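Final report, closing paragraph on structural work. Over the funding period we assembled a curated collection of sequence-structure pairs, and we close with a single example.
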Amino acid sequence: MTTSSDRSPAVDVRSSKSYEIRTYGCQMNVHDSERLSGLLEEAGYVRAPEGSNGDADVVVFNTCAVRENADNKLYGNLGHLAPMKTKRPGMQIAVGGCLAQKDRDTIVKRAPWVDVVFGTHNIGKLPVLLERARVQEEAQVEIAESLEAFPSTLPTRRESAYAAWVSISVGCNNTCTFCIVPALRGKEKDRRPGDILAEVEALVAEGVSEITLLGQNVNAYGSDIGDREAFSKLLRACGKIDGLERVRFTSPHPRDFTDDVIAAMAETPNVMPQLHMPLQSGSDTVLKAMRRSYRQERYLGIIEKVRAAIPHAAITTDIIVGFPGETEEDFEQTLHVVREARFAQAFTFQYSKRPGTPAATMDHQIPKQVVQARYERLVALQEEISWEENKKQVGRTLELMVAEGEGRKDDTTHRLSGRAADNRLVHFTKPDQEVRPGDVVTVEVTYAAPHHLLAEGSVLDVRRTRAGDAWEKRNAAEAAKPAGVMLGLPKVGVPEPLPLATGGCAVD
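Its predicted structure, as stored:
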């Protein structure tokens, strides 16, 4: 196993070899996959057609380690590729991400047809490891123990022309008992504010109009550079960038959610009135067992302050049901917080053991049937609240940024879809004039469902944007490429304004 910290030069792949990346887990992994795509394309590879399903010269798995059966899914998928690799001379398989960081040599032992295993700290090595595996005809396992270079210095193949992730930190200093992420991604490492703002400005110059600031614990930003108000300063600085229309961030931790951040959100016009803040449990007893450094009163106090400063803010959360030792009284406390907070949406998870975490070996694991029953009660309550909160939007006039791929039924209903400032998903009647992803439309909400809104009348206004121009230019360029060079990563790369409901690292 090597641990060299030198960044390897790009590998010149003379023939047009194709690649496919399969991404699992949280937003951090999605953004890392954009970097892996950038690295491979810089090295001369081309994206395999969408739906290639393993029919590529290089298949990369960017893995997640937080699910109990994550390894079983990986080895099942690797098993499906084994016969394909036998029939396709020169095909290579690489495994990276959190599971690779955790399992290391185990992967090659269980799946000896894997060519490369790399960790979360050295994704920049992928092209050279693939070339080394090809030349030496043996598997290359390289796991760096610490961050070699901040990932944002790597080339990136962004999946959206109008919206982008911007990573402001990596790693996490928390010790939540249900989470293995700090052990795999290391302690928090912050980027310099100037580097972050330079990246945002460069993205805006390319046509991006919405950015999502991304961190494992995004509002702890500044702890590594010794400035407790660094995050609020960063939000305000983003507000001064011409052409940047929308700023979001995910996921903050209640422990670090300070009044200066609330003030910056309220006073910076392009910071959107939306907050995703994981609760995990409403019980002080369970929060203590989780090593969550806040209690119910503190959490609800933050919600109250945010609503006072930003009355129309949509607040969403993550909740874990059935944590070891959770009693019926503990669960009732979670329901109490849900009723009080009135979340626009909640990503709810049944607790499952994460191998390598303290919670996995705790006493009083909750029987599956009890967890399931509590989960169903929580979902029913939240569905009711989500619907009631959405009904309050009926009659409101909203500006939407037109989205790509968010309305699965848009073709059959002759609608388009977009996101409101507070991140609610709105399906609207397709206007006569052309509307492109990244453009902005004004609509009146006519109907509410628990998870979306409808604007069934005529669009009130269409504003063509530089972001829409960028989308159009990019699509024209993609269409002009030779056959086989297509966008093959299935829509996971477009920054999701709400966390992916996968139980990944985003559940901070």
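The chain has a mean pLDDT of 87. The first strand starts at residue 18 and ends at 23. We thank the funder for supporting this effort.
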